[in-house]
Design brief:
With 220 residues, this protein is mainly beta. Helices cover 13% and strands 37% of the residues. The strands form 2 sheets. It has a 7-stranded antiparallel β-sheet.
Length: 220
Amino acid sequence: MFTGIIEAVGKVAELQQRGGDARLRVLTGKLDLADVALGDSIAVNGVCLTAVGLPGDGFVADVSRETLSLTGLGQLKPGSRVNLEKALTLATRLGGHLVSGHVDGLGTVVERHDDARSVRFTMEAPQELARYIAHKGSITVDGTSLTVNAVDGMRFELNIVPHTLQETIMDSYVAGQRVNLEVDLLARYLERLLLGDKAAQPGEAGVDLAMLARAGFTSG
């Protein structure tokens, strides 16, 4: 588990393709690895990876085919800047929100514009994730815990303050860029709980207006 508070910006040293999956080596910069051991988790752009090597200036991790298909890690190149966060401990301050490091899908930066000293981004989520994104709710973008300022269909807006721009890779975002999205865990569990016993039935599509009407939450 993570908090979505980025601890350092690292750089990709190497991404080796290995028979359908990949091995990633990351230079971690100011990230303190003194308490990191082999097998520990580190989030790279919001993707939970397991350290399989600790060469001294960073770490090495294997990236599965599944992870490559659902995230933007496969597009990284040597020199690419990445957000880094070590797994939380019981002594970690939860400054963001609970983040699993399991990316739900890829979003797209639609536009950006300055707003005083902040930058406002409009982003678009995949259709299947839009229902989990709520006004003033939490979302994780490339591992960064953020508050949603507005929602319009599949699009949502974010206001990014100078500190976040400085301490993450968000200042480099341009229109058309793809980003890793993880929706709020609570939204996913709430949807599952609303299904009740139907959650155990194969092929259950999820919460929709018809299901809410049957359960008495709407008038039909």
